[in-house]
Structure prediction request, 1022 residues.
Amino acid sequence: MRRLVTSVLAAVAAVGVALPSALTAQGAGGTVVGRVTDAATGQPIQQARVLVQGTQNGALTAENGRYSLRVTTSGAVVLEVSRIGYEAKRVTVTVSGTAPITQDVALSQAAFSLSAVVTTVTGQQRKVELANTTTQIAVAEKVAELPVSNMGQLLSGRAAGVQVTSGGATGSGSRIRIRGQASLSLSNDPVVIIDGVRMTANAGSSSIGVGGSTPSRLDDLNPEEIENIEVVKGPSAATLYGTEAANGVINITTKRGKAGKTRWNVYTENGRITDPNTYPLMYYGWGTQLSGATAGSRVRCPAISIAASLCRADSLRVGNAFLIDSLSPVDQGARQQYGMQVSGGTDRVQYFVSGETEVETGVYRMPEIEINRLKTERGVSSIPSSQVRPNALDRNSLRANITAQLSSKATLQVSSGFINSRQRLPQNEDNGNGLMVGMLGGEWREDLRDSRGIPLLGYRAFPMGDILSRTTSQSINRFINSVQVQYNPISWLTTRAIVGSDFTARSDVGINLFEQGPLGVNRAGQVSANRAEINQQTVDLGGTANKQVFSWLNSKTSVGMQYIRNAFAQSEGTGQGLPPGATTTSAGAIRNASQSFDERRTLGYYVEQVFNVNEKLFITAGLRRDAASAFGKEFRAVNYPKIGASWVVSDQGFFPAYSWLNTLRLRATYGASGQIPGTTDALRFFSPFPTTISGTADQPGVTLGALGNATLRPEYSAETEAGFDLTMFDGKSNFEFTYYDKNTTDALIDRRVAPSLAGVTSRFQNIGNTRNTGLELVYNQKVISTDNLGLDFVLTGSTLRNELITLGEGVSPIPTGNRNTQLNTPGFPLFGLWGRPYTFNDANGDGILVASEMTYGDNTFIGATLPTRELAFTPTLELFGRKLRISGQMDSRWGMKKLNNTKRHQCQGGISCQGLYAGAPLEEQAKAVAAAASVFTGFYEDGSFTRFRELSLSYQMPNAWAKALKAERWNLVLTGRNLGVWTPFTGVDPETTVGNGDQRGNEEFFSTPPMRYWTFRMNFNF
Prediction:
């Protein structure tokens, strides 16, 4: 590590020697002032960047579009003026030491601009300089007119190659995959950075399971506070982010104040949530026993018993409790959101402050018949709202950002965010005592009673009121803070320092009160109270030297270091056997407690060199070196290299001039990044346990907990990316195309070892290899653009091919998935579905299939569980002087299989699927007969779908109406989500998933499906 630091310092010194002296060209200098406006409308453009070419000396325009820039050299200088959404422009001015020079600039709008400024590890760069593709989402411009309630909704369909899977229950988290999944054993989540600080963003952030749905810390963020998001898609682009960035990076920038008068933004949103889904019917066949001591009695009579002449079918009951209003736990949910933001400042200090509160109540509600039963049973006048409404989320978020110009050379940015939330999730999904299992997992019989004699009314084993009486809640207090200082000691050198932390205090509580809940499940009272502290800290130091070496060559050299610390501390307590009314662990007759602490640290150094040749060719090379506490003690550090080029070939003199072509850029890059092992994967450690020694009480003892691996290193992902960007017809048509090839070596495999070695059966080793390849496209088209009418659309698409190359010598294919329906085998995708295909033949023609009429093949690959192709279409129409804005999104995903595990359970354990009974189609009978032989391929269905994901209508009210409310602008927004789906999948919904992990492969297993949202919003600007 010391040798690396010495090398970096030597490189910086060499650059300093090679560059001409910054002082030789300096004279008296002067000041340039002016105004930046929209070329089409003449309106001022705020936050436009005015930069002296070849330096880091620049300024931002104020609300009125004006800027003032002090230039340290006299004579002719070139100013670069840019703003996201506009074509950049360069102008030449002659600076003298006399009166300020005035230079106004008019920028033309462009849906796509290579001159847009993006945020990278080394600071801000123009998009044209990057050799990789980067997706920018202008959140502040979208959220006001297309409200979203969480980050999953915000990212879905906005970037090619980014797949978002969200739970249907209120507060359940989103899972994000960028260019697929590459790790069998580690997380496939991307790194998320907010205002320069690494934040905790994992799905599954809960210590008390409810069966599947879990919160995601990414969804804690308030989209209303975000200015823009940049998605860095793979190792080729994420090299300088180091270990943990192999799955891509999501870079979030929150809103900042702008110089000018104080501006207020007030908004209110109200909406409803409904369940548009149709749930599977349940079947139960009655018949007459034909033989034996019970001959003539009324019995269950499945098709297989009819074929064996054991019974004669009499009637078939069909239905489910969702179809009976008095039994259904589905009602109408509601959403409310209220917020206010204020920003402003002077040319020296700008501020942004916001506050918001939101309340969302999911669709689940205890049926009235069950509420009345429990009132009588408990002798009370009301049932707690947490039981009546088991799914809800209350969240408050506050933010204060300050930007201060400490001097002409130093800028300070302070970002401070606070999030407070409380949410409830019902027992559900892969949960025998859960809501959906209670509704769909048993026999369709209304005559059943529990052991107390209480009618089940069609529920599986427990009355719905008892199921919803166990409550699980999570409360968090979260602080995300950062301080960034940028210092420009001389015109060609910029230095920066970022220090920040993301701290979450989390409290999970699950409770069954005395004599409440399902029979036989903690009816004596039980409470679990778990507290966790999640702390992620960042220190980021860097500097960039930018110098015009020759008239045709610009050099930019960046060096830096990053320190990341992750710490997780948890205390767990349980109390069992609660007296009536007790709610704390200390009240339990039996009490247990445990405590844990994990810490992981990463230290990385990087250097990057960019050469700019005539503003046409940009060549980048870089290297990052990381050491981490999670590595084995015999593995010191890992190196991640990168090299790439961006060539605006259309600007070359030899390139043919076409009237329809504006810009053609070719780009290619190679880079590597990693995925860090688990905190203790490399360690040999002992686990404590109490042991009994003859004649004494329990004594403390230990046993070997893990063998450890002293040579353990990170998974190493190297990616090659190539593509082009094409702008045509005066910027109206823009096309991006990208090919990527990502190869992950040293993949961690949990390899089995002989238990006789140490009593431990496995340990992690770097022996696997995976590969992801694909294509991505983005097409922006401006169809019509006039003062009164606008029509444009964005089309994004991608393909994905994932393959497990090797598992390591001597390692057998690794089963995953429910009932080992997945088999991770070299040559096939990770987490793919495998099974035995079958054929059937009703040999005797009686319309009933039996086991002897089935023929099974060998276990074979059936299909990938992650979509291999996707397409999203997002049109926008503006009418009536562009006051009415209509936008929407349709997206399609296909090329994957989905396990309909709900139906599998109904056929195998719930004895309620259609295929079990006479008269069912032979295909349905074959599925049921195969399931009895533990063959589940009949439930592997085509998971493809096309979804009408969102529709938004935004109307700007007349100015006179706004002024009557003392507002400058007033607009109304009506938004609908999940408005329709078209799919061959026969389950509830093709996007329904049992959890946020990869190892269940998006299966549907009694999961909450996506809900339909309608919201009405008003925005007021003062």
Remarks:
- Confidence is low (pLDDT under 50) at residues 1-27.
- The longest helix spans residues 2-18.
- The two ends are 54 Å apart (CA to CA).
- The longest strand covers residues 526-550.
